[in-house]
Write a structure and sequence with these properties.
globular, alpha+beta, four-stranded antiparallel β-sheet, 4 helices
Length: 420
């Protein structure tokens, strides 16, 4: 009997254990996460989100802001990752404070630009290293064989045996042609270097920076207006970390028929969430003295618009996690409302979808129920596993939240505060 109970308990928690069966990589940071706003004209801005130090998350827009936050220091390099796939590098050149929040401008280089530059540098190096072949046309030419320093020249033919020709005094082999700096000079240079960096704490954590050979000559811009973003804007998570786990794609590959099956199930679940929210609002609007005999329900089903579904494998366990967001309206409703719903589910080993998270709000109650906008999956803590990045919007403002899917729950790793 005990063995049967233990087996049932293990089977019940198997999905949660499967997600953490592999050894987690430990990353203490510093690791910064931002949101890249990439415009069609190639210009980009960066919004700071979090900064992880010693495994703890802090608001990147406020951490060590003296006045510019640490996450937006000049020459800090962020790698833009769309669902774990690198899209390019953004190098911070300056930061600006806008409405009590920070935004960084800088130089954006896509992965295609970086690859093209690398190929061009390789071609130029090969061209410089190329040596034209010797010209074999014409009469033969005599060439003197170069003598090395350690070779002994043969005595002239007229020199009697046993005697050696007079030669100039040999140079002291212990004295090289260009002597390196003395130990005193080296120590002086080291001391000078340490003194020059003494203004910054030597143990101060450092994010990913450009290599010296790649450093641009752009000056830091502060409280200035740079070229605006034009055209459609992409929102891409961006990570700055000198170490951390290597990025990997989080997209879960499915067949077209499987995707349609998932979409049908997810839209049905999302419609039920909107219907439940509409029923709740309708019940709240009814007089309390005469409750209806039957639960008040909308006459027709909600109509979903702007449906977006994403399927991820966040933990390399081959267990898909699905995220769906949509807007909805209910035709002929007593009160015309615009609904927004966000739904997160996961598939078990039997192919069933389990609801992990659901949030439905409307345009008249954003003061109490925030609207959840899904951004993407990103490795926020550098352990090689993906988390879900949302932007929450209320009447008081917006903030970002990072959540890990563990079992049938959505665990918050970081939740920003709105209304700053």
């Amino acid at each position: 009997m005990i063995a049967v109970i233990c087996g049932l308990v293990i089977a019940a928690f198997a999905p949660a254990f499967a997600q953490f069966a592999k050894k987690r990589q430990i990353n203490k940071g510093p690791r910064a996460l931002g949101l890249l706003e990439l415009a069609e004209n190639g210009k980009a801005h960066l919004l700071p989100i979090t900064l992880m130090i010693d495994g703890k998350f802090y608001d990147a827009g406020a951490y060590k802001a003296d006045p510019v936050p640490m996450a937006l220091q000049p020459e800090t390099v962020y790698e833009a990752l769309k669902s774990g796939v690198s899209q390019g590098l953004f190098t911070v050149s300056g930061a600006m404070s806008e409405k009590e929040s920070w935004v960084a401008d800088g130089k954006w280089r896509s992965s295609a630009d970086i690859k093209a530059d690398a190929e061009r540098h390789k071609a130029e190096a090969a061209k410089k290293a190329y040596k034209a072949p010797d010209d074999t046309s014409g009469p033969p030419k005599l060439r003197r064989v170069p003598q090395t320093g350690d070779q002994t020249s043969a005595p002239p033919p007229n020199t009697p045996p046993g005697s050696s020709p007079k030669s100039a005094p040999a140079a002291d082999p212990t004295t090289p042609k260009s002597a390196p700096p003395s130990s005193t000079a080296a120590s002086s240079a080291t001391t000078s270097k340490e003194e020059s960096g003494s203004h910054d704490a030597p143990d101060r954590p450092v994010l990913r920076h450009r290599a010296p050979s790649e450093t641009t000559h752009e000056q830091t811009k502060s409280n200035t207006q740079d070229e605006p973003l034009k055209g459609p804007i992409q929102l891409i998570p961006a990570v700055s970390d000198a170490g951390g786990a290597e990025p990997r794609p989080y997209a879960y590959q499915v067949k077209p028929e499987e995707e349609q099956k998932f979409l049908k199930t997810m839209t049905s679940m999302a419609a039920d969430e909107v219907k439940a929210r509409a029923t709740q609002l309708l019940g709240e609007s009814e007089p309390a003295a005469k409750p209806p005999r039957k639960p008040a329900r909308p006459a027709v089903n909600p109509q979903l618009q702007d449906v977006q579904m994403h399927i991820f494998d966040l933990t390399s366990s081959n267990e898909p996690v699905l995220v769906l967001t949509a807007t909805a309206t209910i035709p002929n409703a007593r009160v015309a409302l615009q609904y927004t719903t966000a739904l997160v589910t996961r598939e078990d080993i039997y192919g069933e979808l389990h609801k992990v998270f659901a949030q439905t709000s409307d345009n008249q109650h954003l003061d109490v129920i925030p609207k959840y906008e899904f951004i993407d999956a990103v490795d926020a803590d550098g352990d090689g596993r993906g988390e879900l990045l949302f932007r929450k919007t209320q009447d008081s403002g917006s903030a970002f939240g990072i959540y890990a899917v563990i079992g049938d729950r959505l665990w918050p790793l970081f939740e920003g505060k709105t209304g700053k």
